[in-house]
Amino acid sequence: MTTAIDFPTTLMKGLQGSLSGGRQETWVEDQASVGSPRRRARFTRSLRAYKFTLRLTTAEFATLETFYDTTLENGILTCNWVHPLSAVSYEVLLDGAPQEKHLQADLYDVSIGVSEV
Amino acid sequence: MPTVTDTQRHKLNRDPVSDPHVVLLEFQEDGQSAVERAALNNEDVTYEGNVFSRSDIEVALPSTGDGEISAQLVSSNIDRYISRALDRATQRINVRIILIDTSAPTVAIIDTLNLMVMPAASASEDGSISAQLSARAGLLEPVPFQRTTKAHFPGVWLA
Questions:
Q1: Reduced to 3 states, what is the DSSP secondary structure of residue B103?
Q2: Low-confidence winner among A1-10, B13-22, B52-61, B149-158 (lowest mean pLDDT)
Q3: Which of A3, B7, B33, B156 is the most exposed place for a label (fewest CB within 10 A)?
Q4: Phi and psi (nearest 5°) for A59?
């Protein structure tokens, strides 16, 4: 799967150390009431999922909402998202619409989750 | 039917299984060449030159009883590959189940060919399709076979 849509890099700021997530496991596991769990390989690919919070101005938040509503067609389409630390690009779906928390005049904390496809 | 080697069998039964063994499904209407393909995996799988789309399918195993033996299959209808087969079909839909070892994906460990059929199905508005999966030529199958088609309810499977 490929996409020509890029997540707006200008908005990837003010992470405030909020980036969390990583790779998902490729195995399934059982849980015994005693003893250690057992595992079996289940999937062929380990996908990544991240959550982070951006500190944005009102205008930047509006840009992000327009990106979600219009460019991603309300979150239906995938986009290329660049990991801010490793600089690796992943094709992702946004977990949902950006969720905002108002901090002060012209400043929001906006929570976003992305899942690799 | 594939000939399974001792090595393949030992690997499948070994604990832990370190290479994923992936189930592939093919849906094909009787007498038609179009085939819808799905893989129970989180990425597409290529087998015999055909691409099987990643999909979310749960299969409830069959129980023993005095009726026809069948399994229940619940599939995501987000990409609508099963619903396309259902919507197009006027004849019986055959189902082929293939099990492959992803480290040697050219050799099937299990291949039912088109020996399974989907005699009944229902769609749900939450984006899933439930279907009955039976061995071919079940005695409970109506004769002549009649399927609910888009002629009866246009677009019903594409919900």
A1: coil
A2: B149-158
A3: B33
A4: -65, -40
* Block residue for tokens 């930047």: A60
pLDDT on residue A22:
93
Chain B environment of A26 (Cβ under 8 Å)? 20
Per the CB < 8 A criterion, the answer to whether B116 and B96 are in contact is yes
Q: Is the pLDDT of residue A19 over 70?
A: yes
Q: What is the ipTM of this complex?
A: 0.73
DSSP classification of residue B48: T
Residues of A in contact with B17 (CB under 8 A): 40-41
Cβ proximity of A98 and A75 under 8 Å: no
DSSP conformation letters of A69-89: IIISTTTTS-EEEE-TTT--E
pLDDT (tens digit, 9 = 90+) per residue, A30-41? 887 888 888 888
How far does the CA of residue A98 sit from the closest CA of chain B (Å)? 23
Residue with tokens 């690997």: B11
Residue-wise pLDDT for A79-103, tens only, equals 999 998 899 999 999 999 999 999 9
B12 SS3 class: helix
Query: Are the Cβ atoms of B42 and A43 closer than 8 angstroms?
Result: yes
Contacts 24+ apart (CB under 8 A), A99-105: A100/A61, A103/A55
